């Protein structure tokens, strides 16, 4: 029988919740591929080193109102079955401080982050299909072994408060990527919901330097554009925008203006295209789907070069739209003033990691991309940047 999270503990040791299914949550997405295209897409996914730059490969309760109690256990369940089906070699797992997230408690607490990081790794240690990656060599080994590598990250550096040495501690505990701010501003810089008046702070400049020195990949997805650009100027290493889209295609604060996108490319970094519900919509495809997400991919690839683009779908193994709806009052206002668009139950073609990279690869094949370009955006671009960032 396949291992499930925390099943190494006897029944009754920890609270148990009825969790959402990891697989077969929604009907399969029909890309309309010819048999030849389908075969080519399957072969490319099988042969390529595939990296998701941003996802949340954890399972949540079916009843979203139970999520606060579930999170407070400090034991988010890794979606082992969903990962096995994903076709992904490595996934950047942005824990987002699961213990405190969407609980009503103070978010981004240092002790909660440490708890999350430890609990997830002890669970993963009890099975062999998923491994923790701390280096490019670990990711390449996972590819050879046929396992899935998890790279741990945080969506914001808020928990370090004003202590630079905490970045070293996080790296020592296995963290390999960290955001500057999560939508709301912090001691490092401005969040995207606070407008562009606040940029990278003096402490933020010091933190960026330490991140470079330690070997932490830097993410500016939830920073405002000014902070993102100033982070790129301060960094001596490539910078990531792990999950984003182009504001030129859909005018909401969560998406990025062209100068912020260009700044990433100028560092040698990579922009991961997001698919979080009701974000990467386009005026061409207003019902959020694979097609609207790929509009953002093509726009950004044309703007900054395909060598600087990848995918960070930002999926969850739960009713993602329902979660956003249930906890809207606790989430940031990153979607304020969004234009009118159809609400969807889920992002068709990109509902979870189980299907996302299968469908992305098929779409790229159907739209005439070369094998080399497909391999680059599936993971090659990310690996090239990581070789410059990580020790």
Care to describe what's here?
The protein has 13 helices and eleven strands. With 391 residues, the chain is of the alpha/beta class. The protein has one domain (44-389): TIM Barrel. Strands 1, 2, 3, 4, 5, 6, 7 and 11 form an eight-stranded mixed β-sheet that branches. The chain has a three-stranded parallel β-sheet with strand order 8-9-10. α1 crosses α12. The longest helix has 19 residues, at 371-389. The radius of gyration is 19 Å and the shape is globular. The model has no long low-confidence stretch (mean pLDDT 92).
Summarize the entry for a quick read.
This protein has helices spanning 35-47, 67-72, 80-86, 110-124, 136-145, 165-172, 202-214, 225-234, 258-266, 290-304, 320-326, 353-366, 371-389, and strands at 51-59, 77-78, 90-94, 130-132, 148-154, 175-179, 217-219, 240-244, 270-273, 309-311, 316-317. It has 391 residues and is α/β, with parallel strands linked by helices. Strands 1, 2, 3, 4, 5, 6, 7 and 11 form an eight-stranded mixed sheet that branches.
Total strands: the figure is 11
- Count of helical stretches: 13
Q: Output the helix-strand order.
A: HEHEHEHEHEHEHEHEHEHEEHHH
What percentage of amino acids are in beta strands?
Answer: 5-15%
Distance between the termini: 38 Å
- The unreliable regions are none
CATH homologous superfamily (4th level) name: Metal-dependent hydrolases
- Supply the CATH architecture: Alpha-Beta Barrel
Tell me the name of the CATH class. Alpha Beta
Which structural class best describes the helix and strand composition?
alpha/beta
Percent of residues in helices: 25-40%
Which value, in Å, is the CA radius of gyration? Answer: 19 Å
- Overall geometry: globular
What's the overall average pLDDT, rounded? 92
